Amino acid sequence: MSKKALVVDDEKAIVKGIKFSLEQDDIVVDCAYDGQEALDMAKATEYDIILLDVMLPKLTGFEVCQQIREFSNVPIIMLTAKGDDMDKILGLEYGADDYITKPFNILEVKARIKAIIRRTVRTTDTAKVMTFGDLKLNEEYRRVFVKDKEINVTSREYELLELLASTPGKTYSREELLETIWGSDYPGDERTVDVHIRRLREKLENNPSEPRFVRTKWGAGYYFQA
User: Fold this and answer.
1) Which of 73, 88, 120 is the last residue of a domain?
2) Same-domain pairing of 86 and 165
3) pTM of the prediction?
4) Strand 143-146 vs strand 135-138: parallel, antiparallel, or unpaired?
5) 117-to-58, 108, 203 alpha-carbon distances in Å
6) Which of 31, 45, 68, 220 is the most buried (most CB within 10 A)?
7) In the structure, how many helices (H) and strands (E) does the chain have?
8) 100 and 134 share a domain?
9) Given phi > 0 = left and psi -120 to 50 = alpha, else beta, which region is 148?
């Protein structure tokens, strides 16, 4: 079955170029040109990935991302201005999985999309569940539960949690986590890891400032406490 993507940008030439390129790889592409249209389409259709520009009419990309996260964990890649680190950090804060800096190479865009889709494809194997007290990770469907209530996490947040939880007590440096989850060619820095760890704690922990599960080993990195 073909994958579905939503491309959102108010520059129609950019949307047209991305749409044409993705369709060469049998990806079905819908297009939106302002934030409200994008939000309405995300509510009406289940997408495999969303490419979302930061600067949009009606609603900003940040606002769209934040509102989508209230009902969906669809992977979101933010398109940000060149060299604007604050946009990148804010995108991650609002729940984006990744970001690409404009101007971009369409081959890089396609590579990022394919990598994220591969990681989020559901398998048909028997579900494997990791359980740590009130915390459960369903590895087949990439879902997280706390006290049997599902927690809405992004694909990156899930991958980070799954890696840490699969080896309790092992400390991973921020560099190791960045390379393992985001890849060695990822242009971001270690703040990306810190943002995702903080968001995970806010979602999982009763008291994020004193985490029960995702712990810090000062000067070394992060580890999972089973």
Assistant:
1) 120
2) no
3) 0.69
4) antiparallel
5) 29, 14, 23
6) 68
7) 8, 11
8) no
9) left
**Residue 53 has which token pair?**
């520009």
User: 100 and 141 share a domain?
Assistant: no
Q: What amino acid occupies position 90?
A: L
Same domain, 63 and 136: no
Domain that holds residue 135: 129-224
State whether 100 and 153 are in the same domain: no
Helix (H, G, I), strand (E, B) or coil at 47: coil
Both tokens of residue 86?
């604050």
Q: For residue 74, which amino acid is it?
A: V
Q: Are residues 140 and 200 in the same domain?
A: yes
Give the domain CATH number at 168.
1.10.10.10
Q: What tokens were used for 121?
A: 């494809």
CA distance from start to end of the chain: 38
Q: How far apart are CA 59 and CA 179, in angstroms?
A: 33
96 with 133, same domain: the answer is: no
